[in-house]
Write a structure and sequence with these properties.
The complex is a heterotrimer. Chain B is 38% helix and 22% strand. Chain B has twelve helices and ten strands. In chain B, helix 2 packs parallel to helix 10 and helix 8 packs parallel to helix 9. The two termini of chain B are 31 Å apart. By secondary structure, chain C is an all-alpha fold. Chain C has a two-stranded antiparallel ribbon with strand order 1-2. In chain C, helix 1 packs across helix 11, helix 3 runs antiparallel to helix 8 and helix 6 packs across helix 8. The chains are: A mainly alpha, B alpha/beta, C mainly alpha. Chains in contact: A-B, A-C, B-C. Chains A and C meet through helix 3, helix 5, helix 6, helix 7 and helix 8 of A and helix 1, helix 3, helix 4, helix 5 and helix 6 of C.
């Protein structure tokens, strides 16, 4: 039997017959609606009250309903499959819900005190209970910027050097250093603050200052930068290094002129990820920069403020108006962190957050 | 045509030691002669699988066009052709694994015992119980023992069987692995050699008692000794399951199959160029492209 | 060349030893890089040394009682009342709220990562992954704000329900019906904070499951859940465990959110629905402002204890995660 090519027959339309036809989805829809109704009915009939009861009953009924349907259609395996699917959908709902709630709340509550002066004034001339068109978070925003810049200046060079050590110079300490970087990433933020406090401030090298806060933040930022830098440097193909060396370059020239430029965007990602990590830290700042109400530019002398600290201290006053400002500060902080996060992803492509 | 097993084995030994550089149509034909069944032999009644007008797409890329093939009980069908002409894709449309690729689409019908497996409302997991598959790279489940691997299909489908040990032994015997593992059924699935792992995968596929066994280049990652063991197994299996095997190795196709289909893609979707009893494809191919391929002029 | 049979007697030439004297500039480079690399060692070492140094006096005075005693009394040097410092209650508190957080977070995180990897429709997957990863970046002070003002009223209601129906279980019993700012609520907030971490790690692990194993399971007629149980979960179990430990470490070290949401009291409290508890981290923040110099040393010692705990947990986590990748399951 020989099949001849038949160029006269038209090519049929591609289909996806494995997709459920809309008609097959009707039973699922029915179960959904029926569970809603049943939950409502149960609430009216019995003593259960409230939204929680409704949600729980709905979940219960829809799970049981889909399990029964699956069993009827296809038997026992399909039934356990349906039960597992139900639980898995519930989990993702339980994750999405708080996230959406946080975003919604911060935006809706932060809106109230948000004015132009939030960005242009500080709190030096205002009382915590002054109206919203006075005072702002300028000192906190500036403080965050200064702290972040300083922390970046400290931790990025060290982090990149660490990454270089792990990829270029595979010294004997390689395993140890990788272990240490992992260990450092677990340092609680308060411990970093305590350390700086213990060394610097108690040791008499100066009172609270922005610089000490930056050092504390660098301790937290360094592991993130180092780990990402190592991953990025590792991705640079060896051919590039070999080409540099074959042209007669010394190791450091090859690194400086070939490897680092090639890894530039990845290293920027590492930096931005590190910044995103520390921009929102409060605890270490409590112990090191102490907080102020006025703009303060000199990081080496005197206490400073920063956004997370600003929010925290307003919250602690307990006054409603101050708390409204705190929500606004939280809104600014959240927007800042989201922007940094987006930048990191945009630069890094598939960089892990 | 009714050689004793011993003679057959000796002849296969000869085949494996012959120099393979100069493949001629006649040499393949003589292999096919010895290996394949006389089409006049009465076939055991049983299942049949038929592909009608099967097309396959990946997104906009038309990978397979208008494949019409049927496979009857008690036969081994080999699908040959150069790389990339859609043989594996076609195989995967037969057990509905093609649809796992998000951009996949198809047209046509695949009928198992007269029923289109792509019908709405068909339970696809039941289809895959009836149409089993063995993959190119052996993939036993490493978190299970050898015994558990064989029975894993039953566990996955929650099929209850009263005599599990008996079934396990039977499948391992049919796969040609029993003697080598009967003392270490509780060893881990990954502790076997490549050839043994592949036979374990065959035993695993057999445990759910399929009607069809699809094999996607099952020997391509194995050494020649394991390959021949598995080919023997395939011949024996064909008595109870329909076997469809995709292979790059023409001698293997000649040794193992009753029917052969030649696939080719010429700047377009893969098509079935010729389909005939194996000895005819290798001795008197009707299409010149088939002849060019089986004599090794390309591919 | 007719030396065939005498090959054994031929002497192979000695291998040459090739050495390169590194150039001066390279030596400088290597030292600088090595110094940079070893900074992490230096920093960790310094943290341990300084905290121990400052806290040494406290350790010496109280010895093991520092860990076990439940009293934190700054004493009154003027009145001659000696201070008595012990973080036992806080250590227990840290463990209690972290465990509550883990118990709540782990199933939800694993379920969510399974959803993201195997259940989510194509158009939903990427945006949802981005959102969940974003959750990990939200600052803890924002979690604290949200936890206190938004979650707490609901959580108090749930706590009351739990007490009403399951109050016969000891941990759900309360000595007094005060449900605000309890370890349960702190654990809830912490759970929301650590879910993204565990989810991200689990997702990583699941993405590495070998495709051919998954296909083998489907080819045998598995449903999606049987495939997950047979292939994905055994493969990913150590990775998930490692992720859980990392989440636990994060929960133990969390300061601000706990401070805002938990009512600090110096008693070990196992009744998680009752408004009393504390964690080492929140205690440090709480006491910091008004601590005498001696108490300050005690806080350093407490910080060291906390550091040791999180170090241990993270070490275990990395051990478990590395075991997965090595066996390549």
């Amino acid at each position: 039997m020989v099949q001849l090519l038949d160029s006269q027959r038209p090519v049929p339309v591609p289909r996806k017959p494995w997709r459920k036809a809309p008609s097959a989805l009707i039973p699922d829809l029915l179960i959904f609606v029926a569970s809603l109704a049943a939950a409502e009915a149960m609430i009216m009939l019995t003593g259960f009250k409230g939204k929680l009861a409704f949600v729980l009953l709905f979940v219960l009924f829809s799970t049981v309903g889909s399990m029964v349907l699956a069993f009827h259609r296809r038997g026992a395996t399909a039934m356990s499959n349906a039960m597992a699917s139900s639980f898995i959908y519930l989990s993702i709902a339980l994750v999405a819900l708080p996230l959406l709630s946080i975003i919604f709340t911060v935006v809706s509550r932060g809106r109230h005190a948000l004015r132009l002066n939030t960005f242009t004034q500080d709190m030096a001339a205002t009382q915590p209970d002054s109206p919203f068109n006075q005072g702002g978070a300028l000192h906190a925003i500036l403080g965050t910027i200064v702290l972040v810049l300083l922390a970046t200046a400290i931790s990025v060079p060290i982090g990149v050097l660490t990454g270089l050590y792990l990829t270029e110079i595979k010294g004997r300490a390689e395993g140890l250093i990788r272990f240490l970087v992992q260990a450092m990433s677990g340092v609680p933020s308060i411990v970093a603050g305590l350390f700086v406090y213990a060394v610097w401030i108690v040791g008499g090298h100066g009172g609270f200052s922005g610089f000490s806060g930056a050092v504390a933040l660098s301790i937290l930022m360094l592991p993130t930068v180092a780990r990402t830098a190592e991953e990025v440097l590792r991705l640079i193909p060896n051919d590039l290094r070999e080409a540099g060396v074959a042209l007669g370059g010394t190791q450091w020239r090859t690194v400086a002129m070939v490897v680092l430029p090639a890894a530039r965007s990845g290293l920027i990602t590492a930096t931005v990820l590190g910044i995103a990590r520390v921009a929102g830290e409060t605890a270490p700042l409590l112990l090191t920069i102490f907080g102020t109400t006025a703009k303060h530019f000199n990081p080496f002398v005197g206490p400073m403020s920063a956004l997370p600290l600003y929010v925290f201290q307003l919250l602690n006053t307990g006054l409603d108006i101050a708390i409204a400002r705190a929500w606004t500060g939280a809104l600014v902080l959240l927007v800042l962190v989201s922007v940094l996060f987006t930048l990191a992803r945009a630069f890094g492509g598939r960089a892990k957050a | 045509m009714s050689d004793s097993t011993n003679e057959k084995r000796n002849e296969r030994d000869d085949v494996s030691t012959q120099p393979t550089e100069r493949v001629t149509v006649s040499s393949l034909a003589s292999v096919a002669d010895r290996a394949s069944r006389d089409p006049r032999d009465p076939r055991p009644a049983g299942a049949d699988l038929e592909a009608r007008g099967v097309h396959a797409w990946f997104g906009a890329h038309h990978a397979l066009a208008d494949i019409n093939l049927s496979f009857s009980a008690g036969t081994v069908t080999a699908l040959i052709g150069p790389s990339g002409c859609g043989k594996s894709t076609f195989l995967r449309t037969l057990n509905r694994m093609h649809e796992f690729i998000p951009s996949a689409a198809m047209a046509g019908e695949v009928l198992l015992d007269g029923v289109d497996i792509y019908n709405q409302g068909i339970d696809v997991t039941k289809i895959r119980l009836k149409i089993g598959m063995v993959f190119q790279k052996p993939n036993p489940f490493p978190s299970m023992t050898i015994g558990e691997n064989v029975l894993s299909g039953l566990k996955l489908a929650q099929i209850k069987r009263s005599n599990k040990e008996g079934l396990m032994e039977e499948c391992l015997v049919r796969a040609g692995l029993w003697n080598e593992v009967k003392d270490r059924l509780s060893a881990h699935g990954g502790s076997l050699s490549g050839g043994q792992q592949q036979r374990l995968c065959i035993a695993r596929a057999l445990a759910v008692q399929p009607e069809v066994l699809l094999m996607d280049e099952p020997c391509s990652s194995l050494d020649p000794g394991s390959t021949l063991r598995i080919e023997e197994t395939i011949r024996q299996l064909s008595e109870s399951v329909i076997v469809v095997i995709v292979t790059h190795n023409m001698q293997q196709a000649a040794r193992v199959s009753d029917y052969t289909g030649f696939f080719l893609s010429e700047d377009g979707p893969g098509r079935l160029i010729e389909y005939a009893p194996t000895r005819e494809i290798f001795s008197r191919p009707k299409d010149e492209r088939t002849e060019a391929y089986v004599t090794g002029r390309f591919g | 060349m007719s030396d065939g049979p005498l090959l054994d007697e031929q002497v192979l030439p000695l291998r040459r030893v090739i050495t390169t004297e590194p150039r001066f500039s390279d030596r400088v480079f290597r030292s600088v890089v090595a110094a940079g690399g070893l900074t992490s060692l230096a920093i960790l070492g310094l943290i341990t040394v300084f905290l121990a140094y400052r806290g040494f006096e406290v350790f010496k005075t109280f010895g093991l009682r520092f860990i076990t005693s439940f009293t934190w009394d700054g004493g009154n040097p003027d009145a001659g009342v000696k201070p008595s410092l012990g973080i036992g209650a806080m250590l227990i508190g840290t463990i209690v709220i972290s465990l509550v957080a883990l118990v709540i977070a782990l199933p939800i995180a694993v379920g969510s990562s399974l959803f993201l990897t195997y259940y989510a429709p194509g158009w939903l997957r990427k945006p949802l992954i981005i959102l969940v990863d974003l959750m990990a970046a939200i600052p803890s002070v924002v979690y604290g704000l949200w936890g206190f003002f938004i979650l707490m009223p609901h959580a108090v209601y749930w706590a009351k329900l739990l007490h009403k129906y399951l109050g016969w279980i000891p941990i759900f019993d309360v000595p007094l019906p005060i449900f605000e700012r309890s370890p349960f609520i702190a654990g809830l907030v912490l759970a929301v904070m650590i879910i993204p971490i565990i989810t991200a790690i689990s997702r990583e692990v699941f993405s590495q499951v070998p495709l051919d194993r998954i296909q083998a399971a489907y080819a045998l007629g598995a449903t999606r859940w049987s495939m997950i149980r047979a292939v994905v979960l055994p493969f990913g179990s150590s990775g998930i465990a490692g992720g859980a430990m990392l989440g636990l470490g994060r929960a133990m070290g969390e300061t601000i959110a706990v401070y805002l949401v938990l009512n600090l009291a110096y008693k070990a409290n196992f009744h998680i629905l009752f408004s009393s508890g504390g964690s080492v981290a929140s205690m440090i923040v709480n006491k910091f402002g008004e601590a005498s110099s001696f108490e300050l040393k005690g806080l350093m010692a407490a910080g060291l204890a906390l550091f040791a705990m999180t170090l241990l947990v993270n070490f275990l986590a990395n051990l478990i995660v590395r075991r997965t990748s090595r066996t390549g399951r």
